[in-house]
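Summary: Need help interpreting a holo structure output

Steps to reproduce:
1. Submit the protein chain below together with the SMILES for zinc ion.
2. Request a joint structure prediction with the ligand placed.
3. Inspect the structure token block that comes back.

Expected: a single structure record containing both the chain and the bound molecule.
Actual: see attached output.

Input attached:
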Amino acid sequence: MTRPNELTFAPLGGVGQIGMNLSIYGLAGKWLAIDLGVYFGDEEHLPGIDLVMPDVRFLEKEKKNLVGLVLTHAHEDHFGAIIDLWPKLKCPIYATQFSAALFEAKCASERNPPKIPVTVVPSGGRINLGPFDIEFIPVAHSIPESHAIALHTPLGTVLHTGDWKIDPTPIIGPPTDEKRLRELGDAGVLAIIGDSTNAVRDGRSPSETEVAATLTKLVKAAKGRVAVTTFASNVARLRAVAEAAQAAGREVVLVGRAMERVVQVARECGYLDGLPAFRNADYYGHFPPDKVVALCTGSQGEARAALARIASDDHPMVTLNKGDTVIFSSRTIPGNEKAVGTIINGLVTQGIEVITDRDALVHVSGHPRRDELRDMISWVRPQLLIPVHGEALHLHEHAKLARACGVPRTMIVKNGDLVRLAPGDAAVIDELPSGRMFKDGLILEDSKSRAVSERRRLSFAGCAFVALAVTMKGELVDDPAVDLIGIPEKNLKGEVMEDVVFDIVVNIVENLPKARKRDPDAMAESVRRAVRSSLADQWGKKTMCYVHILQVED
Ligand SMILES: [Zn+2]
Ligand SMILES: [Zn+2]
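--- attached output ---
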């Protein structure tokens, strides 16, 4: 697998989907990993799965050649799988101060806090890991300290953009480092491996500063209490809310653990300097309605988060009433529309005014739209562009745009494709093991695990259990036990299905040929088939069926 004279790249996650980012680069027999994130489970398709993460079998096998894991930024889709997967890799981790501090805070909030060392790299800094000379280039995004990674190698320079946008006034941190990116372009860049999230959107993402202005206007105009929900990690947005509150003579109360955690880290890193201290939720009731802004978690409708509890009047400290205002300073991630809709409907029913990004510029994306992608390409002028961080359509549009901008070559790859970037023409030269792992409760499961597919089947078509006690000759000792779970009680004729199944079981057992009767496995199989086909006839659905046979001595 070690290809000493080639520079290679493989996405092990994050291509064809948004989330679960993991990229690896190979050179001189060594591997470098960038980001290790999660994909959020989709309730309908993966019942009971909280998190989906990339399969790291390949890196586990190549552990001794893995020189490190570099983090572009601290969003969950880029660093959310480290706690679960790092024990398989045990490689050094490198990140800038905010990402490292947020990771540490996240570890500390675990039930059994893991000890995972992270080496802090300065923003704009450069480190050498094995054959890789790695540069952290600041870019604007929706969390502090996002970085594009420039990999300088003897075979050429690769720009791994990470998540970015062009925001000349990002509120926190420097804007995207255009000057440095142009310098890279002047020196020659082999390839861009680039963010495609917004490749179908024309124009440019508005600036965080425009959102801040809208928030100030809205908070000033509000009559009653104001609650704002946003992604806790968007510190620029937290700052904007705090400044809006200050301008309106209101205090900020933090509601939700994730919010408290991020605020603490942001304070340590100096990103909330100059703002008065935030209050914790205990103080909420002490302020008159027009003197408070609640900054809440739960913008995605999460049932246990602050906003859902406030909306259903289930929060011990924080309540809202008719005439109050809730601002969703967020975007609803696909899959969460229903949960968010339920909260909005609940609030509206109570006479609370709800403002979302449909009503006002209260949210902007952290990803580049088409004009920003064009700018990046014109600064860096790569020989090759490989779109990542996107679904099929996003990747396709990004590649098309790059070609229209004069990039000589684009390649659309899939997770697991090993691409030779240099020397010579770029090409897919191998397929590495890749896939998904599921976090199922406390357990990390292979995506082919039976548990999830069984739960999915159960959720559609229930389950039948039959237990039989028979003699060694196969005669029933007692009535069979039949339990139908998740199956309607009566069929179309109005008969109790459990009774119908009971009669079929008795009939099958009594009429089996002698040899089959003496063989409990054969008997179980006959009963199972008869029960499934009977339920299919009565109900029109195929269920799971389990038959247990207990042989007792005559
Ligand atoms: Zn991000
Ligand atoms: Zn991302």
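--- end attachment ---

Reviewer comment: The first strand starts at residue 7 and ends at 13. The two ends are 63 Å apart (CA to CA).
Status: needs-info
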